[in-house]
Amino acid sequence: MNPPWGLSWRSSTTFIVGVIAIALFTDLFLYGLIVPVLPFVLKDRLGLPDGDLQKTTSILLGIYAGSTVITSPLAGIISDKTPNRQLPFFLGLFALTASQALYFSRSLAGLAAARIFQGMSAAIVWTVGFSLVYDTVGSKDLGKTMGSIFSFISTGELAAPLLGGVIYDKVGYYGTLVVAFALLGLDFILRGLLIEKKTARKYERRTFADDRDFGEAEGPTEETSLLPSDDKTPQTLITRVFPLAEVMKNPRLLAAFWLAFVGASIVTAFDATIPTVAKDYFGFSSLQAGILFAPLTVPYLLVGPVAGWWVDRKGPKQPAVIGYTLTACSLAALYFVRPGGKPQIILYSILLALNGTFSAFSGSSSFVQASTIVEDFSQRHPKFFGPKGAHGALYGCYNVAYSSGMLAGPLIAGGLRDAIGYANMNLVLSAVSIVTAVIAYFYIG
Hints:
The chain is 78% helix and 0% strand. It has helices spanning 7-10, 13-34, 38-44, 50-81, 86-102, 108-137, 142-170, 173-193, 197-200, 222-225, 237-241, 244-247, 251-282, 286-291, 293-314, 317-333, 342-380, 391-420, 422-443. The longest helix has 39 residues, at 342-380.
């Protein structure tokens, strides 16, 4: 059988990681592009009264999060069972395309269906994408790779709300959908070009020179083959259906999920509170409020690869403990931000930048920790998960934890701010970060 055109570069580590990064970027960008204009869509296109806008917008956001949480474990199991991961990866893109098409609807049911499909797409692309990253780079350079990916996709998270608001204001609702479908077209082409490493090895048995960019997935080595192996772990009905349940008894894995939940909660708490603080404290317009996200996001973009390198070299424990401890300090410092002019704006921006920086150092740790635990278990019990392993199921569960944090963050932050005020809200989040740092000290690494 003749090898496909461009086999070498289409199966190279750099290209595969780049395609996954763009797929995740597309998902985040389209989420951020649509969400800021939802209230205007509900009012202008569906004719909802002003009093129903906040409630309906919150319901639509909840539908998205619920769809993601439900679909993620299923996406992981399917990813581990299919012959290759490219098929479910494409299914995620079709779900995302369907969601964008449904945004043309002029009914609330159509918008709800769009949010369901978009949540399904997010679950699939993140779960399968993470699995593809692990298949491609292995554990050695996982932290550096994920740090680089998260840095890249953070630009989409930053630019989308600003761009969505400007396009809606200047061109209208359909203009935002044109941008969405253009990005989907690029994503479709790139996913079609991708060739997985294991597929490429069927055509040629050689090492790709460009695999040194990020590292190559590690197969059995002399070291791993000498590890003690025990395949007599008893299986229950639950572990036969969902083998990862056996590993989830490990408190270190649950700690990794907790770190992912808290990290997502803190990030989305900022998403929920920055616009209102900008308006109430500084009298900012919506565009000026959007610009305030830059100090939070840009440091993550710059620091992410360094943080990932630190995790790879020192292990996940040290970055997690230090990252969440410093995050607790920067959150506590937000207590001192008060309504005012330029000095308060500068103080708020500096503290947002510190929070963005410290979040980068704590972000990669949970992902690497979870991956390492499952890899260690697989080496001790090589037949337990079957020939394809359980990383798809793992990242499905990881995505559940992260998505749950994305859902909980705005709800917790909004409730706390209404109940005890913005300053005290940050003290509560700081206390949660301290507790998380303690958990990381005892259970991470």
